[in-house]
Amino acid sequence: MKQSQMLIPTLKEIPADAEIKSHQLLVRAGYIRQIASGIYSFLPIGRRVLRKVEEVVRQEMEKIGAHEMMMSSLQPSELWKESGRWNTYGAELMRIDDRHEREFALGATHEEVVTSLIRDEVKSYKRLPLTVFQIQNKFRDEKRPRFGLLRGREFLMKDAYTFNESFESLDESYDKMFNAYTNIFRRLGLNFRAVIADSGQMGGKDTHEFMVLSEVGEDVIAYSDTSEYAANIEMAPVVTTYEKSTAALKNMEKVATPDQKTMQGVADFLGHGLEEGLKSIMFKVDDRFVMVVTRGDHEVNDVKLKNLYSADIVELASEEKTKELLGTGFGSLGPVDVPEEVEVVADLAVEMLVNVSCGANEEGYHYVNVTPERDFQVTQYADLRFIQEGDPSPDGQGLITFARGIEVGHVFKLGKFYAEKMNATYLDDQGKAQTMVMGSYGIGVSRTVAAIVEQYHDERGITWPANIAPFQVHLLSLNSKKEEQQQLADQLYDELIDAGIEVLYDDRKERAGVKFADSDLFGIPLRLTVGKRAGEGIVEMKERVTGNQSELEQSEILSVVSNWLKQ
């Protein structure tokens, strides 16, 4: 394609709102443009990359027997009410009313729609297992869209769904999808890890996230330094063995701690380490109020709390409600003498402590020499904290270390979560009605494009892997006023196109420096430059990633370029 005829608006300056490299480079290189906060258009060169990523996804889906379809983005609320998610999904679900005041949602995901479709169309075990997928725009009303394509309100997603007769059959489908995802991200050249994850609003259990390793990732991965174990930090169990303190018990006392609102401030004021204090945080777990107590140097893991109660919604209690229940704000909370309507649960480490400090539920006061079970009662002890670097790996091999990751894929074993709620059944070989067993699988296609750029760039621009670059070759004619240059460039363009090679031909009337800068910015793998030696039939070839350069005669260009691309 001729660059003079394409919409590729490049920018010299970094956009003011672009915080990370993928956002900066995709905007500067003319791949995307923002329409509103969290909403982007893919311009022609960006659409080409997006389409190539889609094709890799399609190929691997078809290899495992998945069939592509397209479902409506506009979804009636009745389906979401059947599953119970209309009121629990959260504010991210975009809801609209039509002219008849009928409620709809813009598709954030399609479990409800696909379940209603399959329950109406598939009635026999002979049609199972069944795998369908689509590649479609999704909508989520993110509170704070940021990082360009990594956290948007509209994005392109591949979502797939499996319907099975049994959990054993689901395991087989899940493994096929897991392997397909592994192949997809390997083909895209990504450095990634598959990690144990939480199912969140999707329901079901047993799930993995595919994380692209990147310092700009919003998720923290906990992984073993000696084994293959990896999990989202929310899901990594703590297997540390705690020993009961043998210190002599002291009498609990109330002491003044004026102006001390933080754990560190209280610890410094009282002259002890963070691990010798109790951290107490109030949560609303569905319709009950729960105080979670951890050691002062540990952090409460709200996902573990949610799983402990099998809750739909877990959120921090408001300070107003906390004051109403306990008579004090967040800075002085503690588990001693809490009212009956507040349940107290504690992390396993707390059970082993003696003579520690905690809030006295009175502004500006704390207790010292507090011992669990003597001075306060705990409903239950459980693993309720985030794992920390240096903790033993849950698989018993090595120690935990952290890395940051960008979630690009997620696979779920939904089980019967939706099928039971929405009455998705089939007749088995005995003619008896049985509930279908489901799986759900997603890849953020547009997000993956950004993740690739995060791993493939340098100080001059993007460095696309060759199989997903918008073009294979960038052909530059440095001076269109020179007849020999223009003639040779035109000939090469036609030859390359006839050979089936994807070429972007920079035929613009621009300075050589502008063309070189744009070429580096685009990140096309090979650059052919027709310059001063055009009269001799000599062209310069340069590899974008390595910077290796060579001069080629016109007669050998096609074979050299073809062989390079094959490699």
From TrEMBL:
Pfam families: HGTP_anticodon, tRNA-synt_2b, tRNA_edit. The keyword Iron-sulfur does not apply. CDD domains: ProRS-INS (cd04334), ProRS_anticodon_short (cd00861), ProRS_core_prok (cd00779). Belongs to the class-II aminoacyl-tRNA synthetase family. ProS type 1 subfamily. Homodimer. Catalyzes the attachment of proline to tRNA(Pro) in a two-step reaction: proline is first activated by ATP to form Pro-AMP and then transferred to the acceptor end of tRNA(Pro). As ProRS can inadvertently accommodate and process non-cognate amino acids such as alanine and cysteine, to avoid such errors it has two additional distinct editing activities against alanine. One activity is designated as 'pretransfer' editing and involves the tRNA(Pro)-independent hydrolysis of activated Ala-AMP. HAMAP family: Pro_tRNA_synth_type1. This is Proline--tRNA ligase. It comes from Halobacillus amylolyticus.
